[in-house]
Write a structure and sequence with these properties.
This protein has 288 residues and is of the alpha/beta class. 29% of the residues lie in helices and 28% in strands. It has a 7-stranded parallel sheet with strand order 1-3-5-7-9-11-13. Strands 2-4-6-8-10-12-14 form a 7-stranded parallel sheet. Helix 2 runs antiparallel to helix 3.
């Protein structure tokens, strides 16, 4: 009979692989890489993952059962929110975004991002260096914001955009509060002060995160990441929290799901907490 240790090791590998497959499918849909018809397949895989966890309860410790159950809940929430966003009900719903009457921002402060990379309704900053950049609350409310190829910039995103997508940043400081998700990719030597329901980080290195997140953050192909809890040290942050109805006491900043680290019994070497004596959360007040 297979030993309990071998069963746990086999479970860790299978669970992480299945979870990563679901997450990759969600990202592909979000990036318009696959058809939204795949939502049915994703839901089936989530159900299969739950059954796999249930079948493993005879040898998994209670802590691991709870941890994996929470990860399934988080990925299910991501699925539901993306499904609602891309395939909304035809009946009347609250908070539906207009598709045509979008106020155009001033060109000298704000420019559209390439539509081939992000949603057609995305707005943000691209190809900027050594600048202080800001989007106002009116410019971001319920929008999808994208930041792409920025170097040595301080970016303040006021209000509560729906999502924030960040790609190819170096030596920047980013301040953002999204009502749903924040996606970070290919960043280095950058500091994020951010709040959202979901946080996903890919292909990034040597970057600090002061975060508020209601689900577990996900990292993949990352190294030298550090995390600390976000503190409401400014009026802008406090106002964004109020608009998003975030509860400061419900912060899962310590729950980091590393898809490159299979063991659930030993900590990942790819991230750590920022020691309390080294925590120095930037304040956007210095850049307004």
């Amino acid at each position: 009979m297979e030993s309990t240790t071998n069963q746990k090791t086999s479970f860790d590998l299978s669970f992480k692989t299945k979870l990563k497959e679901i997450n990759d499918m969600l990202i592909s849909i979000e990036n318009n890489c696959i058809e939204t018809d795949n939502f049915h397949d994703i839901l089936q895989k989530i159900n299969e993952l739950q059954e796999f966890l249930n079948d493993s309860k005879t040898f998994l410790p209670a802590y691991n059962m709870k941890k994996c159950s929470n990860e399934i809940k988080d990925i299910t929430k991501c699925y539901e929110q993306l499904h609602e966003k891309l395939q909304p009900k035809k009946k009347f719903t609250f908070g539906k975004r207009p598709t045509k009457s979008v106020v155009k921002p001033k060109e000298d402060r704000f420019e559209p991002i390439n539509e081939s990379k992000v949603y057609k309704e995305d707005y943000g900053f691209k190809n900027r260096s050594n600048e202080n950049l800001m989007l106002t609350e009116d410019e971001t409310f319920s929008k999808d914001i994208a930041l792409d190829v920025l170097t040595n910039c301080n970016v303040i995103i006021c209000g509560t955009p729906s999502t924030v997508r960040v790609t190819s940043l170096s030596t920047c400081k980013i301040f953002a509060c999204a009502s749903t998700s924040i996606f970070v990719e290919n960043c280095k030597d950058t500091i994020f002060v951010c709040a959202s329901q979901q946080l996903r980080i890919h292909d990034s290195i040597a970057t600090d995160f002061y975060i508020y997140v209601t689900s577990s953050a996900i990292i993949e192909n990352c190294k030298q990441l550090r995390f600390a809890p976000l503190t409401l040290n400014s009026i802008l942050l406090k106002k964004s929290f109020e608009i998003a109805s975030f509860d400061e006491s419900n912060n899962n900043w310590k729950i980091i799901n590393d898809f490159d680290w299979l063991s659930s019994y030993e900590p990942s070497p790819n991230w750590c907490e920022i020691p309390e004596e080294e925590r120095d959360q930037p304040s956007e007040n210095n850049y307004v």
